[in-house]
Amino acid sequence: MAWTQMLLVSRRSPAAAPAATPAFSRSFSKSSPSYIVKVGIPEFLNGVGRGVETHVAKLETEIGELHKLLVTRTLKLKKLGIPCKHRKLILKYTHKYRAGLWRPRADAVKS
């Protein structure tokens, strides 16, 4: 049934299809937010929250830089003594950060 409907829709002439008006197009992309700051391991873990920020000193001494944390595997974090729940959170947010879906927020600037 669905296959035949797709064939019928594709066979319609372009003149019969309603034209999309560019004036009513919707844009879902957001402009770059004003809270972007230079991100290091402490800012990243504080942005994740949920107790993960307790491992800042350990990760800074062992890993050093944020780009190394972004490619660190779970076994390395396990060897550093980070609990499973915190490893999952760190890996979840590193994946989101690499994909550009999440950034840690900066503290609110007082005016």
Can you give a write-up of this model?
47% of the residues lie in helices and 0% in strands. The protein has 111 residues and is an all-alpha fold. The longest helix has 16 residues, at 84-99. The N and C termini lie far apart (62 Å).
SSE topology:
Layout: H1 2-11, H2 41-48, H3 56-62, H4 66-70, H5 74-79, H6 84-99
Number of DSSP strands? 0
Helix percent reads 40-55%
Shape: elongated
Give helix and strand order, one letter per element, not per position: HHHHHH
Overall pLDDT: 80
Largest sheet: none
Helix/strand/pairing category: mainly alpha
Distance between the termini: 62 Å
- Per DSSP, the total helix count is 6
The proportion of strand residues reads: under 5%
Rg from C-alpha positions? 23 Å
Low-confidence stretches: none
Summarize, please.
This protein is mostly helical. The chain is built from six helices and no strands.
